[in-house]
C-alpha cells in the first residue's frame, strides 16, 4: 500500500539513482586497505583518535551530501562527495534500503524514531518522528547514520508484525538484499540506529523487558550480542556517537568542537547549548546543565567556528557567531535572504576552517515543496563580509542534506 502511494517525484529520483549506480560504487574498506591509512585527520571534527583510508570522502576540501531516492520497487540513499566552489562531483556511494527498513512511518505500523525517516520519509502527512525538524536539527541526526568514511549506514528494521524493531546496517555499493540484521529476538524494541565512528558497531536506544530505557550497541562482527551502554530517555531523542573509545550522547544538534573538549547539544528541560564532553554514554542531565553555556538568542546551532565560537540561527532569522564560553554574540549579523524574498533560511554545515556555511532557502514551513532538482542552497560567509553564492549542482534536490565540509 505504501509503495503505491509514492509520487512521480520518487520515480524521477529512482532513475537518477540507477544512473549513479552505473558509475560504480565504493564498498567498505578491506582490512588490507585499513592498514594503509593515510589521512591522519578524521573528517568528523573532534574524532581525532581515528585515522582513515584515503578516498574522496575523507580528503580535505570536500563537501558530503545525502539525498534519498525512492521508486516503486526500491529505495536508496545517494551519498556524494563534492569539490566546493565548482561543485564538481568527485564520487557517489549508493546505499540501497532494505524493504523492511523503517524509512518512513505509515498507518498500521509502529512509528519508528530514526534519522533515516528524517531523510527519506517526511512529508506534509507524515511528519518527522522527532519534535523539531528544522535543518539545524536534521543535518547532525542524518550525519550520525554513517561511519566517518561513509562506508556503512545504520538502519532500523521492522519485524514481520510491523511492531518489533531491530537494528542493522547496509554496506555501500550493495543491493537491496545486502544488509546485516544484528538482532532478531521476538519483542525487540530497538530504534535510533546510528553508526560508531569506525563503522564496527551500531548504537541505538532500546526498551528492556521490564520497561527500562537504555542505550545499547551491537558489534558488526561476531555474534552481534547486545552491549548495554548506559541510560536513555526513551526513543524521542536521537543519538550521536563520537570519540575513541566511542560514547553516545542522546540529544539534538550535537556538534563536537574541533579540539574535542566540548560539544553543542540541546534536550528538553535541560538549560544550555555548550557542554563539556563526558566519558560515559547517556542523555544530557540537569547536572550537565549546571556547567553548560547558554547561547543567547540561538534557535538553531549550525556548527563550530573555531574552538571558541558557535554559529547559530537567531530568533530574527539571521545568523551570528556566539562565544562558546560567555554565550554572547560576536561580530555582525549575517542575513541569507532579503525581506522581500518571502523565504526563510536554515543552516546545515560550517566549513572546517570556519569561514563559510551552507544554508537552505525555502518557503516558510516547507522545505520539500519545490520541484525536483530545484533545491536553493547558498554558501555564505560566517563573517558576512562576502556575498552569498549559489550551490550549482543539478543532482541536489530540496530534500538533500549537507553532512560535512572538510
Which properties best describe this structure?
globular, single chain, four-stranded antiparallel beta sheet, 35% strand, 406 residues
What is the rounded Rg? 20 Å
Strand order, sheet with most strands: 3-2-1-25
Structural class by SSE content: mainly beta
Distance between the termini: 41 Å
Strand fraction: 35-45%
Count of beta strands: 25
- Quickly count the helices: 5
Shape descriptor: globular
Question: How are the SSEs placed, and which strands pair?
Answer:
Elements: H1 8-22, H2 31-34, E1 63-70, E2 75-83, E3 88-97, H3 115-120, H4 135-143, E4 152-158, E5 165-171, E6 179-181, E7 190-195, E8 201-207, E9 213-219, E10 226-231, E11 239-242, E12 247-250, E13 252-256, E14 262-266, E15 274-276, E16 282-283, H5 286-290, E17 298-304, E18 309-314, E19 319-323, E20 329-334, E21 344-350, E22 356-362, E23 376-381, E24 389-390, E25 401-405
Parallel strand pairs: 12-16
Antiparallel strand pairs: 1-2, 1-25, 2-3, 4-5, 5-6, 7-8, 8-9, 9-10, 11-12, 13-14, 14-15, 17-18, 18-19, 19-20, 21-22, 22-23, 23-24
